[in-house]
Known about the structure:
Helix content is 45%, strand content 13%. It folds into two domains: 22-171, serine acetyltransferase, domain 1 (Orthogonal Bundle); 178-298, Hexapeptide repeat proteins (UDP N-Acetylglucosamine Acyltransferase, domain 1). α2 runs antiparallel to α3, α5 (104-121) runs antiparallel to α7 (137-152) and α7 (137-152) runs antiparallel to α8. The chain has helices at 2-14, 29-43, 55-83, 89-102, 104-121, 128-134, 137-152, 158-170, 290-297; strands at 173-174, 179-180, 185-186, 193-194, 199-200, 205-206, 211-213, 234-235, 240-241, 246-248, 253-254, 259-260, 265-266, 274-279, 282-287. The protein is globular, with a radius of gyration of 22 Å. It is α/β, with parallel strands linked by helices.
Amino acid sequence: MDQIKRDLLSSYREHGGINHMDGPNLPSRKTVDALAEDFMRLLFPGYFDRETVAREEFECSLETRLAGLRAALSGEIHTCLRFAGHNEPEAAGMVEADHVLASLACVRALLRTDVEAAYTGDPAAPNFEEIILAYPCVPAIAIQRVAHVLYQRGIPLLPRMLTEHAHRLTGIDIHPGATIGSHFFIDHGTGVVIGETATLGSHVKLYQGVTLGAKSFKVDESGKVVKGIKRHPDIADHVTIYAGATILGGETVIGENTIIGAGVWLMESIPPHSIAYYQGDNLVVRHRRKREVAEESS
């Protein structure tokens, strides 16, 4: 044991980049996971409580619930801002927490469209209750929409920790920086990856295994990856991307009303009203026929 102790102490000295001792406190993953669960209970009241919740009782307890979430959220934001060297992290933590809580009504309005999209887009969906309780896309999208508010405010650490909670829970990896429109549905969901600078319009539908990723990483003169640039594709309105498709690159745009077939690999833009699929080893991109549009709409 003495040798093990000496080896570890030596490692701590030599490989300091993966230590965090004597520095500012870091956000607690356990607390962040609890925050995600509290957000889900506020966004979908009655769905994630252990017992039946009466409307009147919930409305009476809402102020208490909000106060508890505000305290926990502001504390974690304070910790994240202090880590980043903010001058007044405690006061800023409360301001930012209030901003996030004030956004929840708007987030709920978007989530209603997401649940509607799942109900409309999946013939196996019998009702909203099953979608909210059982579909992995619901927590993945809901937590990402909250985390995106924090991301836009420049809060470090916490947005990504929230979306990684959803990732662990669902197998769906959506970066908090991704911008996502209304009526978003991920069918099945396992293995979906959406990168930080991706933008998705309204009425976008993805299937399992879809990747909206980066084509390559620019490096500076010292060989370090350049951060903060556009790396991921833009997906326009009313686009469907089938299972296993991979779309890469910050300059890649998938035009509106387009279908990307299963297993397609793309690093170039596709014009609106198109369909892209493999015929043998060849990628075919053609204009959608009226019959195909009518069948999708029916």
